[in-house]
Amino acid sequence: xxxxxxxxxxxxxxxxxxxxxxxxxxxxxxxxxxxxxxxxxxxxxxxxxxxxxxxxxxxxxxxxxxxxxxxxxxxxxxxxxxxxxxxxxxxxxxxxxxxxxxxxxxxxxxxxxxxxxxxxxxxxxxxxxxxxxxxxxxxxxxxxxxxxxxxxxxxxxxxxxxxxxxxxxxxxxxxxxxxxxxxxxxxxxxxxxxxxxxxxxxxxxxxxxxxxxxxxxxxxxxxxxxxxxxxxxxxxxxxxxxxxxxxxxxxxxxxxxxxxxxxxxxxxxxxxxxxxxxxxxxxxxxxxxxxxxxxxxxxxxxxxxxxxxxxxxxxxxxxxxxxxxxxxxxxxxxxxxxxxxxxxxxxxxxxxxxxxxxxxxxxxxxxxxxxxxxxxxxxxxxxxxxxxxxxxxxxxxxxxxxxxxx
Length: 406
Fold this sequence. Notes:
The chain is mainly alpha-helical and 406 residues long. It contains 16 helices and four strands. The chain starts with 11 loop residues before the first helix and ends with a helix.
């Protein structure tokens, strides 16, 4: 029999309590409580706490939340995505164009079609076939260039199926009648696939050409913005269909959609092997590569999710306003990145959480709206950039100082 005394099991209760109380989210909750108390005492009319104001706050939080979640995933994985606002504009323009013009027009083509500014004429069936095949071929090529053949094949198949559904539904569009639900669903699905392909393109440039993430996404930020302006022809594209507008204007759809996205990303990052690998990639990419982690695939996942969530944000913003423009979404990437940083994500990578990002977004929303109500002569939209810039500087400085002490 061994003469060593049996080792006492650690007290799970005190350890759990210590872990919970040291979580960075507690600081955010305390900050939210302090700001709410300040608004309550400084704003005598208490308009901030009215039902309408709180619903508006919740609605705007859901719209910007999907962007912040995608930005958080990329930042945790050690990257940055500056193209969020441009993807919002491009996906909104493409989605509204698909609903109002492209899919209905393609489905009803007859006779030869003039293309390339009159340089050639092609049969309608050929034009429809090109519209069906080319987007899928691009998706297949992007997937294969990243070494993700299965992802490329699945993406291409989904795009082809969605296009077929959209063409079939587009042929049923009647003048002055609501668009078929299948047409709206196909347009939204194709817009999300566009965001996915943009994200995979970022991963391709970063892994194949060894471009810094800042440069790769900065380039696409400018390029995609110009493409959105070209496709929109420098005008607003209006969609009055109630079924489409409900996605972005009705809290019964917008808030649950955001909650589902936040929950799914939180579970993925906190309770799956994929999430742990993304944290490891952001913490030390060289060590992750030497450990045998699929770095190229992990970056494709991170940037693909960011692009798809940004595209979802574009669809929601288009539904909220009932129109899309090539100029929409300006500086939305700053909003998303600020929410992630305030929520505890380190720009160095490897640190952060989705729940912290959501709380950071809530805090920013409260500060912006509350400041506009406390200072009566200033509209909250006028100081939004000032608040975001100030908050992100303070948050990064605090995180740097906190980690230096740790």
